[in-house]
Amino acid sequence: LIFTISGIENSEDVNSGNTIGCENTSDTNTGVASTSTKVGLGNLSTAKVNVSAQLLSIITNLSSGYSLIASSSGSLSSGSHEILSGVSPQEIVKGQERFGIRPCGLDAASIWGTNSNRLYAWPEPSEPISLASDSSGPIGNDVAEGNGLVSLEYAASISDDVPQGVYKTSVTYIVTTTF
Questions:
Q1: What is the DSSP string of 132-166?
Q2: Is the pLDDT of residue 143 over 80?
């Protein structure tokens, strides 16, 4: 099993590196490039939904596939204020307080909506969320173009009620091969 995370430059398409499996050509718009270990959402405002992204790559030679889940340290928060999120996928609308992630690719489940109706969720420490899976292997972009690639979009918007601050959380991605 090989699992890698790559950053995506600011103003690049969410599906950079994954154009076969993910049709989301929305530009990242935070003013900050993501890296393999950090995603910045920039200065949030009520005027837009801020978007950042990473590309996840899964390779396994097993014929039974893989599953990818996410767990987190908790909500996106600053002090005692938490930006709303939840484990059930929901739309994020500018001017409304919401934060989440959305997988896109051949292996992402349909619960995440379509390119024109994107839905986002955020895992809780005690309730991870399933992002993608493929039950037949081997898995890898060189096996079938787009296979094993997951574009992961991070999005956030705030309302006028959200206090200023530095908001943080952490997420852990877990890839499990199926035997």
A1: EEESSS-BSTTTSTTTTEEEEEEEEE--TTSPPS-
A2: no
Q: Measuring CA to CA, how many Å separate 167 from each of 56, 82, 105?
A: 24, 8, 28
- 138 preceded by cis ω (within 30°)? yes
pLDDT in tens, 121-134: 999 999 999 999 99
Q: What is the pLDDT of residues 10-69, one digit of tens each?
A: 999 999 999 988 999 999 999 999 999 999 999 999 999 999 999 999 999 988 999 999
Please provide residue 111's backbone torsions phi and psi, each rounded to the nearest 5 degrees.
-65, -15
**pTM score, two decimals?**
0.94
Q: CA–CA distance from 108 to each of 68, 85, 95, 167 (Å)? A: 9, 20, 28, 27
* Cross-sheet strand order for the sheet of 149-157: 2-7, 50-59, 149-157, 98-104
Show the tokens assigned to 68. 């990818």
Contact 108, 70 (CB under 8 A): no
Strands 149-157 and 98-104: antiparallel
C-alpha distance from residue 14 to each of 2, 64, 75, 152 (Å):
22, 28, 23, 8
